[in-house]
């Protein structure tokens, strides 16, 4: 072979990719496209929170917050046909010994009892270990057709978790939850953690609170209210006359519930 053909062959080998080269991976979906699918619950909407017992779909509430594991896709679809906005509850910061995926949590991530039977705080610093399980829970909510998620127990840093958790640890974990929910096309609620409400409001779409009027901390939810985002509150001990009028003045959707969170509800 002469020098010129040899040189051309070398150039061709460099510039022309082999036929066996694998195709490039699909480009990730643009954030704007995902965000367009996310629907926040309407502010001031009536709501129902039921995590125990057979689902009662007859409650006259615009927003239903129900257990993600126990509620079927068919039940979510029925609620949607009735014009409901449906929120998927799951625990993100605590382990529960009755869930079907309980054995997927590494033993090193399990901390102190969180005060509820069968539950233990999780070490939210170990995000690499927890992420696969929690990501699958969020994906489950998306597959079932929920509109949003309510990840619970996201304030372990403010409790005796058994781990030296810091506010920074909690912020990192909570923001990861919000980003993951949004990546699945779901809105996401900040559950309690009012001490970090100002920092987390930009990442979350609404807030779910417990006993904020009893403990006189509802004012901390103002970052959400000022942003035009819904704030839902459940009171367990106060009579309606002690919290309904203040809730209306603030713009909080408040109800009275029993701590077992069955179907019973006394709305403002």
Q: How would you describe this protein?
A:
The structure is a single chain. The chain has 268 residues and is α/β, with parallel strands linked by helices. The chain has one domain (32-267): TIM Barrel (Alpha-Beta Barrel), CATH 3.20.20. The protein has eight helices and twelve strands. The strands form two sheets. Strands 1-2-3-7-8-9-10-11-12 form a nine-stranded mixed sheet. Strands 4-6-5 form a three-stranded antiparallel sheet, with no helix packed on it. Helix 6 links the parallel strand 8 and strand 9. The longest helix has 17 residues, at 127-143. The chain is globular, with a radius of gyration of 23 Å. The N and C termini lie far apart (91 Å).
Fold topology:
Blueprint: H1 3-15, H2 31-37, E1 47-50, E2 63-67, H3 73-81, E3 85-91, E4 94-96, E5 110-113, E6 119-122, H4 127-143, E7 148-152, H5 167-183, E8 187-191, H6 197-200, E9 206-210, H7 222-226, E10 231-235, H8 240-250, E11 253-256, E12 266-267
Parallel strand pairs: 1-2, 2-3, 3-7, 7-8, 8-9, 9-10, 10-11
Antiparallel strand pairs: 4-6, 5-6, 11-12
Helix pairs in contact: 4-5
């Amino acid at each position: 072979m002469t020098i010129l053909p040899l040189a051309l062959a070398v150039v061709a080998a460099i510039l022309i990719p082999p036929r066996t080269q694998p195709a490039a991976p699909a480009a990730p979906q643009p954030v704007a496209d995902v965000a367009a699918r996310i629907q926040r619950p309407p502010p001031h909407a009536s709501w129902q929170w039921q995590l125990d017992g057979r689902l009662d779909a007859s409650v006259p509430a615009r927003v239903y917050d129900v257990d993600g594991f126990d509620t079927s896709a068919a039940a979510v679809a029925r609620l949607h046909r009735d014009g409901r906005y449906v929120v998927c509850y799951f625990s993100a910061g605590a382990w529960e010994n009755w869930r079907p995926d309980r054995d997927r949590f590494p033993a090193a991530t399990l901390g102190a009892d969180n005060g509820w039977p069968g539950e233990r705080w999780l070490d939210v610093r170990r995000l690499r270990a927890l992420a696969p399980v929690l990501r699958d829970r969020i994906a489950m909510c998306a597959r079932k057709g929920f509109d949003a998620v309510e990840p619970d127990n996201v304030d372990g840093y403010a409790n005796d978790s058994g781990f030296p958790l810091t506010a920074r640890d909690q912020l990192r974990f909570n923001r990861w939850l919000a980003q993951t929910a949004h990546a699945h096309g779901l809105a996401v609620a900040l559950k309690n953690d009012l001490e970090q409400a100002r920092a987390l409001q930009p990442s979350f779409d609404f807030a779910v609170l417990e006993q904020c009027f009893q403990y006189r901390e509802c004012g901390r939810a103002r970052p959400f209210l000022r942003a035009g985002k819904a704030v839902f509150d459940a009171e367990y001990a106060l009579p309606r006359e002690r919290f309904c009028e203040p809730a209306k003045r603030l713009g909080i959707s408040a109800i009275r519930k029993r701590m077992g969170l069955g179907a019973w509800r006394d709305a403002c």
